[in-house]
Amino acid sequence: MTFLKSARAMSSDELQKSILSTYFTLRMGIVVLSMMLPLILYFGGIWWGGIHNLATSISAYYGENGGTMRNWFVGILWTVGSFLYLYKGFSDFENVLLNFAGGFAVGIAMVPCNCWKEAVGPSNKLQAPLPKVYLAFRG
Fold first, then answer.
1. Going by C-beta distance under 8 Å and a sequence separation of 6 or more, which residues neighbour residue 133?
2. For the chain, what is the largest distance between any 2 Cα atoms, rounded to a whole number of angstroms?
């Protein structure tokens, strides 16, 4: 445990720099994952998933071609949803909106839309409002 002996207390400036760095990294993670989700689903669907045409919606990648891109879709939405929940806003109101957006992102991942080609049966009744509410809270 020599690494504990060499640890020293951070100065106020170092602590503030570390907190800002963590905050900025979390924000960039949300942005990068959100921007990359459609690209990962589209190109991953072509290269690994056997999906050679653009799906009817991003949610359709959940079940398209037997759900080959499902894990990517669900995993990224869970990650973005968790980041949005953990990210603290500058006001209580903003924080509540971010918490709701995180919850709705996870909800979208967990409630399939049945909007892919091989889908059987009607779409889940929760699926229609979830993406709209998520986008409203995300801003």
1. 100, 104
2. 62
Instruction: Enter the tokens of residue 99.
Output: 């918490």
Reported as a single tens digit per residue, the pLDDT across 46-68 is 998 888 888 888 888 998 888 89
Q: Could you read off the pLDDT of 27-42 as tens digits, one per residue? A: 999 999 999 999 999 9
Measure the CA–CA gap between 29 and 33, rounded to whole angstroms: 6
Q: Please state the domain extents for the chain.
A: 14-138
pLDDT band at 111 (very low <50, low <70, confident <90, very high): confident
| Residue 40: predicted pLDDT | 96
* pLDDT confidence of residue 73: 95
Q: Tell me if 27 sits within 8 A of 19, measured CB to CB.
A: no
Q: How many CB atoms lie within 10 A of CB 4?
A: 6
Catalogue the long-range contacts made by 119-127 (C-beta closer than 8 Å, 24 or more residues apart).
Answer: 119/63, 127/59
Tokens linked to 98? 């971010």
pTM of structure: 0.76
User: In 3-state terms, the chain is what percent helix, strand and coil (to 5)?
Assistant: 70, 0, 30
